[in-house]
Amino acid sequence: MVKAFRWCLFLVLSIGIIGVLALRVWNPEYAYVPPTHHVLPAGERPHGLRTAAEEDVAWDLWGRSYTKQEAAQLLQTTAGKQLLSPANGAVEVNERMKRIGRDLFYTETFGNEEYITDVLGIVNGPLRITNIAQAVLALKGQGTNNLRVALAEDVTLGSRVYHKGELVDTGLDVAPGGLAPIGMPVKVKQGRLKVGITCAACHAAYDPHSKKVVEGVPNLDLNSGLLLALSTNSSSYFTHVQIKPLAQYVRDPTRTVTTSNGQQVALPDPAVMEQDIDAMLVQWPPGYFDSMYDGVNNPTQIPDTFTRGGHPYGWNGFAMQGPFKGLSSLNNNVHTLNSDALSEMNYATPLYKIDVEVQLATMLQHAANPSYRYDPRSGQKPSAFFNQFDPTPLAPGLNNLLPAPSYPKGTLLSPSALFTESEGLRMNEGNNALSVYQNALNPPPSGGAALYDQALGRRVFTRAGCAGCHAGAYLTNNRIIPVGEIGTEPSRALALKQLNQVLVEPSTIYPPDTPLPVPPGTKTLTVPKAHLERGQIQLAYAQGNSAGGYKVKHLRGLGWSAPYLHDGGVAVGPHAEQELGIPGTLKRQIAPDPRNSLRALLDRDLRRRVIAANAADPALRQVHVQGIGHEKWVDRAAGYTKQEQDALIDYLLHF
Q: Left, alpha or beta for 42 (phi > 0: left; psi -120 to 50: alpha)?
C-alpha cells in the first residue's frame, strides 16, 4: 500500500512538473473570435448614398484611395507601378488584409498583458481570473452584456466599501459559448496566467435582443474605471487622472531614487497615492475611458468603429495624417499609450515635469508581479532595474513597440513617437489591416421599423441646417470646429496642448513592406502633409492661443451609440420622466434609449432637465461630463411640430 501511494504521488508530481514545464515552453492562449454566424449582420447603406468607389478600394496611398479600375490602369505603366508601390508608402486593400484586421481586432494585445497583469495588477486584487472564470461558467453557455463578478476580498474605493463576494458590474461582454470575455485574451507566459486587452473589449458588444455579437459598436457599459480601480497598482496609471504633485504623497523621505541628473528625490507613498487615484477612477461613468495623458481626469465616451468616411479621427480630429486618412495613426495611438502607461516614460520630463527615474519608480514600486516590483532601498536606478526584464529594450514600455524614426520626438503621424509591432507582420501592417477591417464595417439596423416618412425627416434635417456640418455620404463635412463655436464641454479639446512641445515635422515612417525588426540602414519615407490645413491642425492640437476643437462626427449607427455629444452627457432612458442624464441611466445600469436621447439633443426643455440631472452629481463634475452645447434645436420653440421632430429622429436612427 505504501509503495502504491508513493508511486501515485511520484506520478502526480511528475505530471505536474511536466505540465509546468510544458506551459513555460508552449505558452498557450485563448481569445474569443466569434464565427460569422454568431455576428449580427451589417445593414446596407440607405438612401442610395453608397458609391462604387467606396466598395471597390484596391490601394491606399497616404489616405488617397484608388479603385480596382484606377489601380489596374496605373499598374500598366512604370510610373504607376512606382506610385502604387510599398516603397512609396502604398498599402494594398484586399481580403487578406481584412481577415488579418478582424483577427487582430479580437486577439492582438500587442503584448499589453505584461503591463495589465504584471504591473497594473488588474486580476491580482479583488478581481481575479478565477472569479471571472466562475462568472463565465455560471452563464452556462449563455451570453451577457454585463458580466457580474464576485469579488475575492474587501476593498475600499473612494467613499464606498466593496465586500468579498459582492457582485460588481464589469460591463465585460461574453458571447454564447465563449470561455472568456470578448476582447480579453487569457495567456500563459513564463508559467504565469495573464490577461490582456484587445480592440474588441471596447468596440464590440453582445446584443441581448439578437443574442449575437455586434462588431464596431461601443461597449456602452464597460466599467473601465472600476476595473482599473480594482487593480492592485492603479498608481501606475496616474498620468490619466488628475492628482496632486507627487511630492505631496511622500510619507517616508528616506525612500529615494537617484534622478537622471544625480539628485535624490523621495518617492510617493503608493498606498496613499492609490487611494486618491482609485477615488477618481470610480468617478468614470460606464462606457468611458481616458485615452489621453494630459493629467486631467476627463474620460471620453468609447466611440464606434464605423470609420469609413469619418475622418479626421479621434474626438478632436488629431489623427489626420498617413494611411487611410489618419485611421492607422489612431489605431497605433491606442496601444502605444493607452494599454501600457510605461510607454510614456520618454515624455516624463517635458509633459509631466517628472524625471524619468521618478516616474518609473512610481509606476513600478507596487507592481503586481514581484519580479517587476522596484525597491528603492536596493540602490539600483529604476531604469537599470526595468532593463532587466524589459521585453522591448529598444522602445519604452512593455508593449511590442518600435521607435519611430523621429524618436523621442513625436509627429502628427505618431504623437507617441512609437509604432506597434504585430508578430509575423511588417511595418505598420497591423494598424493598416485594422483600418481595412474597420472601414469595411457597416452598422446593423437599429431603432426598429421606420415610423415616419424618411423624406420628411430628410427635409427637416435640411431645413434645420444640420446639413451645414453633417453633410455628404456619411453626414459629416470632415472638419474640426472650434470648441467655442460648438459650446460643448471644453476640457477634452485641450487634451493635446502640452504635446506640442514634443512634436516635430516632418512625419517619417519606414516603408510598409519593411520587415521587423527594421534592418539597419532602412530608408524612411516622408509622409505628405500638403493636403492638411494649418488651421485644422491648430484646432486638433490646441496650438498657440487656440482652445482646441472637436471634429464633426459622422451620424452612422446612432442607434448603437447613445448617449451623445463629445462628453456623452446627453442620455435619457426608456422612461424619459425618471431616467435623465448619466445618473438616471448608465449609473443605474440602464441603457440610454437612442430615440429619447436624440430628442434631448434636439429639444431644449428636455436638455435642460438632462443637464440639471448631470450637474447634481458631484462625480460627473469632476470628470467634466455636462451634456451642454450643440444648441441646434428642432422643437416647438424653433417652429417645428412634434411630428417633424419625430420624423428627424427617425431619419437619423435609420440613416
A: beta
Query: With the C-alpha atoms ordered 14, 15, 18, 20, is the resulting torsion angle positive or negative?
Result: negative
Q: Closest Cα to residue 325, out of 298, 307, 338, 304?
A: 307
Asked whether residue 184 carries a pLDDT value surpassing 80, the answer given is yes
Q: Which amino acid is at 272?
A: V
Cα gap 28→330, rounded to integer Å: 30
* DSSP helix/strand/coil, 598: helix
pLDDT tens digits, 379-389: 899 999 999 99
| Angle of CA points 217, 115, 561, to nearest 5° | 10
Indicate the pLDDT class of residue 206, thresholds 50, 70 and 90.
Answer: very high
Cα(496)–Cα(292) distance, integer angstroms: 8
The alpha carbon of 383 is separated from its chain's Cα centroid by a whole number of angstroms, namely: 28
CA–CA gap between residue 38 and residue 56 (Å, rounded): 26
Q: Where are the chain's structural domains?
A: 1-30, 31-242+267-442, 454-653
H/E stretch holding 148 = strand 148-150
Closest CA to 438 of 261, 587, 130, 217: 217
Determine if the peptide bond prior to 517 is cis (ω within 30°). Answer: yes
Across 494-570, the runs of DSSP E, i.e. the strands, are 508-509, 525-526, 549-551
pLDDT at 37: 92
For helices 594-602 and 642-653, the axis angle rounded to 10 degrees is 130
The per-residue pLDDT for 70 is: 95
- Give the predicted TM-score (pTM) of the model: 0.93
pLDDT tens-digit map of 33-54: 999 999 998 765 544 444 444 5
The tens digit of pLDDT for each residue in 425-449 reads 999 999 999 999 999 999 998 867 7
Burial of 254 (0-12, 13-18, 19+ CB in 10 A): exposed
Answer whether residue 13 shows pLDDT above 80.
Answer: no
Half-sphere CA count of 321, side-chain side, radius 13 A: 24
Rounded Cα distance, 432 and 439, in Å: 11
Q: Is 195 helix (H, G, I), strand (E, B) or coil?
A: strand
Q: Name the residue with higher pLDDT: 6 or 534.
A: 534
The residue whose grid cell reads 440613416 is 655
CA atoms within 13 Å, Cβ hemisphere of 289: 24
As a whole number of angstroms, the distance between CA 301 and CA 610 comes to 17
